[in-house]
Structure formats: C-alpha cells, structure tokens
C-alpha cells in the first residue's frame, strides 16, 4: 500500500519533469549477473513504467539510469566503476538532469558504498538487494532531498508481493519462488549479499502463475539460488517437488523450468515429479563445480562425485532424453592436475549438454580467498582451455541427438542475424533456428530438426 502511494507521488513529480524537460522522462536499466538480477530488473521496469517513465533507447540518452550490479567476481566491480566514469562525464557535459542509481549485490558491500559516496558524488541513489520493492519511495526521496540517497539494508525476512513487473517476453518469464541462500559455498559471495533463504508461500506463487497464464505466459522458470531447498523455512513445510507439480497443473502453462538445483538437496521425489509430468522440462541445470571430492569438500558443497553420479543415473533412467547442463570452476585453491583430471573425467562420464566454465576468481570476503595454494594464473588458464575444448566436444555430441526428428519448439524471437529465420527452444532447452515470421513468436510449433550445428539445430516447420 505504502509503495502504491509513492508510485502516485512520483507520478506527480514526473508530470512536473515532463513540463520542464519538454518530454516524458526516460529510463534505462543495465542488468549484470544472474537470473535473479534479471528478474529484479523486470520488477524495476514495471515500477518505472507504472510511474510513467518511458524506455530510453540507450543509457546515455536516458533521464534515469539504473545499474543493477553483480559482485560475484571482483573484476565486475571494476567494470562498474569504469562505466560510471563514462556516465559521469555524460551527466557533467551533456545532460546535467540525468539521475544515476546503483542497486544490486555490489551495493550490499559497505566498502563499495563508501567508494561511491567518496568518489562518485554524481550518483544520486544507492540501494541494495533487500529493498528494491521500495524503488518508488527511493526515487521520491531522490527527487525531493538534497544529496545522495543511500538506503541499503543488511538483511530482511520480508517478501513483498504484488508489485508491477514488465516482462522481457510476453509468453515466458521467471518467477521467484525464494530469495537468498544458506549454503555458504566457500568461493561464493551470494549468501553475504542476498541474505538467508526465504521462500514465498505456494499460494502466492500459484496466484502469480495463474495470473501470468491468463496474461499469455506459456512457460515459467521457477527461480531461486537453490530451488531444491524451497519451502524448508515455511510452516507448514512444503517441498519443491510438491510446488513443482502444482505449478505444472496450472491451466495455460505448457512448460515449466527451474533453476538452480543444488545436488545436495535434490530428492527422489523431484525426479519422480519430473518424470511423471510432461509439462516439466526435460532439462536440469545441476552445478557440479569440480570432479574432485577433495576440492568439493574445500568448496563446502556437501556432496561428492559418487552422489552426483547417483543422481545423474536416476535422472537419466526416469526422465526421457534429459539434457543436463552444469557449472564448473577451474583453478580453485589447491587444485592439482590430478583434481583437474577428475573434473575432465566427470565431463566425459556425465556427458553434459553444455557447461558454464569459470576460471576461479578470488573473491574478497569469502573463505576461499584466504586459502593457501592459490593456483597461478597461467596454470589455471591452460586448464581452462583444455576443459573448454572437452566441454564443447561432448556438448556437440549430446546436443545433436535429436537431429532427424520433429519436436515442439517455443519460438522466442526473430533471429538476430537472419531476419528470414525465427529462434526458439526445445523442451530440453536446445536452441533451434528455422524459417518463419514474426507471427510465430510466442507459439509452440512442430519443427523438423534437419541438422545439428553443435549447440543448436537448423530446422523447418513440419
Ligand atoms: S548454493 Fe553456493 S554457489 Fe549457489 S548461491 Fe548459494 S553459496 Fe553461492
């Protein structure tokens, strides 16, 4: 209610600005990092649109620029400051009325906020990951108070429902089912900047998804840092598989995806639910991180490779034509050639359809940053190249298995390189390009997968 009042107040501020600018104020959001940030940015865009801002064609033309930051890697922070320098020059020389706001994970770090306060006085507003729902109120303060507005909360147990959001695609979207993370993997800053795990109630999630279905959404991606531990903090407890099967029953929803799954919490019930419901995607993103049990322990991952392989075996037996994708880190402190070989062995054994491969990056504030035996850059780089080559080789073979068959494709968009083609995805998440026009966007159509090109298919409508 309070935020609705601030949306109204900001509308009247915006009317004044429209009169003095000679145009309706515009906004631009730059989103860095993960799906959670992308989802937050959809909500920010929804609030800004509701206030009356219009979308600017680029950041330098915008009256309000919002950077939704990521802090998983230290060099991401350096990039933000580089970008801010450029934006500051535009504000100084071309558009003194420009407002600049920073939010997201990086702003949860007191040292970074201090840097912004001292070195970037032209930034007008700073807020964090816990209070983005207050955007209208914060903008109102920015417009009516002197100096920088800085409002960063250390944590929250609040979950705010029913705020507007603008979807990137009208027919598919992410839905937050939980916030935060309790896992404290030793290389990861997320639990420090996104706080402890909090689950939304199934009622609220289902209500949102029913609304989305009535608004034309056909595919939802359930989002959380570790969806497999969904519901543990609710009273009464609800498991992720229970939620998933309810979501898959919502009328109008044809495809349900979820991300990210932590292997330590993946239950047999979830595998059964995936196996028994054709609306649940036959794709799982299951981060392995390392193929060495010794390194997994140092990463504080709470599973070993035997457990991971056991899950993979059950999944493959139960879910037809499942595609498994993963995250892998190379060069974690103490990683030997033998540990690295164990990772290569796991890639060969599990046969991932694709993998996000990361060079370990020392992240101040995490336990791993203080570990001895940091791997020299040249060694880590060389391993990274070898891993990438293997991941690509295996991925090419795995992703091409459906060539020659006809499968349903949800069309996402017109192809960006070739306007005669459209681009969509199979249920297992593999990309397909085929001849078609804009009228197909948002439709699920049968496509003959003529040729595998490695990580995508070329097809034709059948
Ligand atoms: S599960 Fe581990 S890697 Fe994922 S967000 Fe939580 S701490 Fe980070």
Rg over alpha carbons? 23 Å
Q: Helical content, roughly?
A: 25-40%
In CATH terms, the superfamily of the largest domain is Methylthiotransferase, N-terminal domain
From the spread of the alpha carbons, the general shape counts as globular
Round the mean pLDDT to the nearest integer and report it.
94
> What percent strand?
15-25%
CATH topology of the largest domain: Rossmann fold
Low-pLDDT runs:
none
Largest sheet: 6 strands, parallel
Question: Tell me, what is the CATH class of the largest domain?
Answer: Alpha Beta
Number of domains: 4
Between the first and last Cα atoms, what is the distance in angstroms? Answer: 51 Å
The assigned structural class equals: alpha/beta
CATH hierarchy: architecture of the largest domain:
3-Layer(aba) Sandwich
Number of strands: 19
Q: How many H/I helical runs?
A: 13
User: Which compounds are bound in this model?
Assistant: iron/sulfur cluster
Sheet with most strands: strand arrangement? 2-1-3-4-5-6
Kindly describe this structure.
- With 462 residues, the chain is of the alpha/beta class.
- The chain folds into four domains: 2-151, Rossmann fold (3-Layer(aba) Sandwich); 167-281, 2-Layer Sandwich (Transcription Regulator spoIIAA), CATH 3.30.750.210; 282-399, Transcription Regulator spoIIAA (2-Layer Sandwich); 406-461, OB fold (Dihydrolipoamide Acetyltransferase, E2P), CATH 2.40.50.
- 37% of the residues lie in helices and 21% in strands.
- It has helices at residues 2-21, 35-51, 74-93, 110-119, 135-144, 190-194, 202-214, 240-247, 268-276, 293-298, 305-318, 337-350, 377-399, and strands spanning 26-31, 54-55, 64-69, 99-104, 125-127, 149-151, 172-176, 178-179, 198-199, 219-223, 255-259, 283-285, 323-330, 354-359, 406-414, 421-425, 431-435, 444-452, 456-461.
- The chain has a six-stranded parallel sheet, sandwiched between helices.
- Helix 3 (74-93) links the parallel strand 3 and strand 4 (99-104).
- Helix 1 (2-21) packs across helix 5 and helix 9 packs parallel to helix 11 (305-318).
- The longest helix is centred in the last third of the chain and has 23 residues, at 377-399.
- The site of iron/sulfur cluster (SF4) has 10 residues, from helix 6.
- Iron/sulfur cluster binds next to helix 6.
């Amino acid at each position: 209610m309070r935020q609705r009042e601030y949306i109204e107040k900001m509308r009247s501020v915006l009317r004044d600005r429209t009169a003095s600018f000679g145009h309706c104020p515009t906004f631009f959001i730059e989103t860095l990092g993960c799906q959670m940030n992308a989802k937050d940015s959809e909500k920010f865009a929804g609030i800004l649109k509701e206030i009356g801002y219009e979308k600017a064609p680029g950041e330098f033309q915008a009256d309000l620029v919002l950077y939704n930051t990521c802090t998983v890697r230290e060099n991401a922070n350096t990039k933000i400051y580089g970008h801010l320098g450029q934006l500051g020059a535009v504000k100084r020389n071309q558009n003194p009325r420009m407002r600049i706001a920073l939010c997201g994970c990086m702003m949860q770090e007191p040292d970074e906020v201090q840097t912004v306060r001292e070195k970037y006085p032209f930034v007008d507003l700073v807020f964090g990951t816990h209070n983005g729902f207050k955007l209208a109120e914060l903008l109102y303060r920015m417009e009516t108070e002197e100096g920088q507005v800085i409002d960063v909360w250390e944590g929250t147990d609040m979950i705010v429902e029913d705020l507007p959001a603008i979807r990137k695609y009208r027919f598919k979207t992410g839905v937050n089912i939980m916030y935060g993370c309790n896992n404290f993997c030793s290389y990861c800053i997320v639990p420090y900047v996104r706080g402890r795990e909090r689950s939304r109630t199934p009622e609220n999630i289902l209500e949102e998804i029913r609304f989305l279905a009535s608004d034309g959404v056909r595919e939802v991606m359930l989002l959380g840092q570790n969806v497999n531990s969904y519901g543990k903090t609710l009273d009464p407890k609800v498991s992720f598989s229970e939620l998933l099967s309810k979501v898959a029953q919502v009328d109008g929803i044809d495809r349900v995806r979820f991300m990210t799954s932590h292997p330590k919490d993946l239950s047999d019930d979830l595998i059964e639910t995936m196996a028994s419901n054709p609306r649940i995607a036959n794709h799982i993103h299951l981060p392995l991180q390392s193929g060495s049990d010794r390194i997994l322990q140092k990463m504080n991952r709470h599973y070993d490779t035997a457990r991971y392989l056991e899950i993979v075996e059950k999944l493959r037996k139960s879910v037809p034509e499942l595609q498994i994708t993963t995250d892998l880190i190379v060069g974690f402190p103490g990683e030997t050639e033998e540990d690295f070989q164990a990772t290569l062995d796991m890639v060969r054994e599990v046969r991932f359809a694709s993998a996000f491969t990361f060079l370990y990056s020392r992240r101040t504030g995490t336990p791993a940053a203080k570990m001895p035996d940091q791997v020299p850059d040249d060694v880590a780089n060389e391993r990274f190249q070898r891993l990438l080559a293997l991941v690509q080789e295996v991925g090419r073979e795995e992703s091409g298995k459906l060539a020659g068959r006809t499968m349903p494709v949800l069309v996402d968009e017109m192809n960006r390189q070739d306007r005669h083609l459209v681009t969509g995805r199979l249920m297992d998440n593999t990309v397909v390009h085929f001849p078609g026009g804009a009228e197909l966007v948002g439709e699920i159509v049968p496509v003959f997968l003529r040729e595998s090109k490695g990580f995508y298919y070329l097809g034709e409508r059948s």
